[in-house]
Amino acid sequence: MSAATVRFILNGEVVEAEVVDPTRTVLQFLREDMRMTGTKEGCAEGDCGACTVVVIEIDRSGDGLELKTVNSCIQFLPTIDGKELITVEGLRGSEGELHPVQQALVEHHASQCGFCTPGFVMSLYALYRTNDDPSRQEIDDALAGNLCRCTGYRPIIAAAQSMYEQSDDWDAKDHEVQLRAIGRDDSLEINHDGRRFFAPRDISMLAELYECRPHATMLAGGTDVGLWVTKQHRELNTIIYTGRVRELLEQRVSGTHLEIGGAVSLADAIPLIIEHYPGLTEMFRRFASPPIRNAGTLGGNIANGSPIGDSMPALMVLGASLVLRKGVDQRELALDEFYRSYQVNELQPGEFVAAIRIPLPDDGVIASSQKWSKRFDQDISAVCTAYRLQLDGDTVTDFRMACGGLAEIVKRAPACEAAVNGAAWNADTIDSACDALASDFSPITDMRASADMRLVAVQNLLRRFWLETSGEAPQTVYTYGR
Predict the structure, then answer these.
(1) Which CATH number fits domain 366-469: 3.30.390.50, 3.40.50.10090, 3.40.710.10, 3.30.565.10?
(2) Average pLDDT, integer, range 317-322
(3) Cβ atoms within 10 Å, residue 354
């Protein structure tokens, strides 16, 4: 269905917004069109959290609501068609009183310059709505996408712990009724001055659109494509949005595999993966931030192919494969055969990632992934490593290692693997494996780390994995404040 407007709910009111530019961000719309300036622009790349808003939609079961934070600075306006958007202005009570989250921040002196405060408010509001008794770790995790440069985090965390002492007038049923009233059952197509935005509803329509328009930009969560617009100032003339395609939003467990649709968000995919591979918990907790994980997709992270993409090393050692589709044709390709060179992969024109298939773990498999970065939470990796290990007593029967940040693509470490497979799982073997890593990779020097430091880091991370599996070191370094 062709349309000139997108329709959504903004702070309780139905809005029909004319789309002049399909890449206009939600933040631009709020601040420039609606003059709602509570939501701030700090970085324009989804890193600081000052622009955080809450999006609500009918969940995939069709029986309830899904509430999540997103970064409005990189979210394109047409992607919120049929959804509800709540900003900091929408939290005031019926008589203008502060929301319990805001009141708690006031009482604990948790704001100083105030620039970051609206983003913290919205992250805490999402936590308030979805978790009525969060642990300290859950509070920290919820705030991992928000940066404060003057107050510090202690009073903000204190506010989070006390905000439940007051209640608000939330009625989920009212929000659900409004959302069902504005829902769009058919596909969305926007055409303005030759710039087009397509949001198909099923995979057949998506495949047909992309096969006919192979040079179109495929848009999932926008956590990477958004930066093409806000930072690189690219003009995207044709966009095909995958976020409404039913089949791409599904995930299932078979007798042999996890299968995750290409448009499943990281926030939804990660719990399923961790359920079967708990050793990946720490890495995935440090993977971006809640607003990024809520918007970004596992399929998009893979298709983008950044050499520092954190999901790929883990999926590679687990033996993941990709279901690729073009038109009516479909094929399956191992992830470790997908990348050719820097951001060049095996996708043919008009072909897309329909699903990711991850084998279920064999008995006794140990899987782990480690992330090394300057900042512990919400930072881009300098090095990311992953391992899959099987032992027969003290002898290694199967060892796989993959690394990101050490080459122009994420890839396995064949020399290191050869040094370990069939050997005893001991310090001498690990020393040989660390030496072999120097022949597997020729790291670069950049703003995140020097080449020498990267090589030392990846060797030490492997040693850490050995110490963890040998019981000589704790299996997490994520302990502060817990």
Answers:
(1) 3.30.390.50
(2) 98
(3) 25
Residue 63: its pLDDT value, please? 86
Q: At 102, is the pLDDT very low, low, confident or very high (cuts 50, 70, 90)?
A: very high
Tell me the per-residue pLDDT of 126-162, one tens digit each, with 9 for 90 and over: 999 999 999 999 999 999 999 998 888 999 999 999 9
Locate 44 and state its tokens. Answer: 């324009």
Residue 482 has pLDDT above 50, yes or no: no
Give residue 20's pLDDT.
84
Instruction: Report the run of H or E that residue 190 belongs to, with start and end.
Output: strand 188-192
Which residues lie below 8 Å from residue 474, measured CB to CB, with a gap of 6+?
468
What is the Cα–Cα distance from 2 to 186, expressed in whole angstroms? 10
pLDDT at 442: 87
The angle subtended at Cα 251 by Cα 201 and Cα 264, nearest 5°, is 60
CATH class of segment(s) 2-89+173-241: alpha beta
Q: Which residue has the higher pLDDT, 3 or 70?
A: 70
**pLDDT of residue 456 exceeding 70:** yes
Q: Are 327 and 208 in contact (CB under 8 A)?
A: yes
Q: Where are the domains of the chain?
A: 2-89+173-241, 94-165, 250-359, 366-469
Sign of CA pseudo-dihedral 420, 423, 427, 428: negative
Is 479 a residue whose pLDDT tops 80? no
Question: What pLDDT was estimated at residue 478?
Answer: 55
Q: Which fold has domain 94-165?
A: DNA polymerase; domain 1 (1.10.150)
As a whole number of Å, the end-to-end CA separation of the chain is 51
Q: How far apart are CA 79 and CA 77, in angstroms?
A: 5
Query: What are 96's two structure tokens?
Result: 């203008």
Residue 62 β-bridge partners:
none
Give residue 2's pLDDT. 55
Chain centre to alpha carbon of residue 307 = 16
CA separation for the pair 125, 368 (Å, rounded): 33
- Report the sign of the C-alpha dihedral through residues 216, 219, 224, 230, in that order: positive
* CATH code at 250-359: 3.30.465.10
**Residue 12: closest CA among 181, 199, 128:** 181
3-class secondary-structure state, position 6: strand
pLDDT tops 70 at residue 276: yes
Beta strands 84-86 and 344-345: pairing type? unpaired
Residue with tokens 């492997």: 462
Distances in Å between the Cα of 99 and the Cα atoms of 121, 167, 302 are 9, 8, 39
